[in-house]
Amino acid sequence: MSVYRDKRSPFYQFDFQHAGHRFHGSTKCTDRKSAEKFEAAELERAKALVKAMKRAKASLAIDDVADRLWNDQAQYDTDSKATETNLARLIDHFGKAKLLTDIGHNEAKKLVAWRRGHRVSRRGKLTKQQREALPLISNATVNRSSTKVLQRLFTFAKAEGAVFEHEPKWKELLLPEPEERVRELKTQEADAIDEAMRGDYEPFFDFVRASGMRLKECVTLRWSEVDFGARQIVRTGKGGRRVVFPITPAVREIIFPLQGQHLEFVFTYVAVYGNKRLGLVRGERYRLTYNGAKTAWQRMRANAGLIDFRFHDFRHDFGTKLLRDSRNLKVVQKALNHRDIKSTLRYAHVLDEDVAAAVQQLAESRNKSRSKARKVI
Known about the structure:
With 377 residues, the chain is mainly alpha-helical. Helices cover 51% and strands 9% of the residues. The protein has a 3-stranded antiparallel β-sheet with strand order 1-2-3, covered by helices on one side. Strands 4-5-6 form a 3-stranded antiparallel β-sheet, with no helix packed on it.
């Protein structure tokens, strides 16, 4: 090992081999002592890289790992489009050739800081002033779209056999998120939604309210996942977990008549306008898409005059009402496919009236005991 000067550059260059791999480039240093120190650090980096690659037996460049992750599992995610966008964002930030072994805690911290400066996106053309007026993305979005995606790449590479000596400290990188609120749909709000609803979307939104499933899960529901004989819907939910939802008489009444509208997907809509570019014919039925469902919901919400009610709140409404009727957190946990009971505990406020009743009953019991004791005396 030795550094050398190249007439074409003011910097010292390094060039060495380790375990059959050649490592070379500029030290970005103009004095030999600093250049030798840089080369020593590169040697340690090379040792770590060769060790990781030897175990993984595959390239650890972020673009290559992302490509293998996509082909192996990510393309089958419920919202694969979002996964693809998030992976592309990381590759763009770090550069295709960036090695995972070169991404330590400080590099990951820079990613988080960079992502925190992004603003929420809006469709359509916006002026510079309008874009700058948009709010910054939430901590939850930063965690979900960057930190956890990078962690997934590391986890995938480790499953292939890679070993990382300087893996980022993921818990320290995750930004604090406020506790998710629980919003219940009021009777008058439900009536307003029914009034504003388009007929072809009615089965979809009735199913959303009757099942408590997430938007993506409802939109992508396939007939192959519906078993009327066993009275079950069996599918893969969030986190790749198997979800089994019962086909109650109410759910059956919603989806049974939809058979024949589409060969693969359960929910459809009727095209109000034709579109040659998209191949849409006015009056024909097409499978409901994620973006189409969101657009329909936004219009419906505006027409119904709903304030502070998001699509995900249908799920909160379902969980709240189910707990109120069942008085059983375990039942709600299973119905909502929560891995951890802590996620279900956000609905526990529903049981406050039970606690209050029990406390009152205890107080009344004590008062009766005191009364009897006085009579005896």
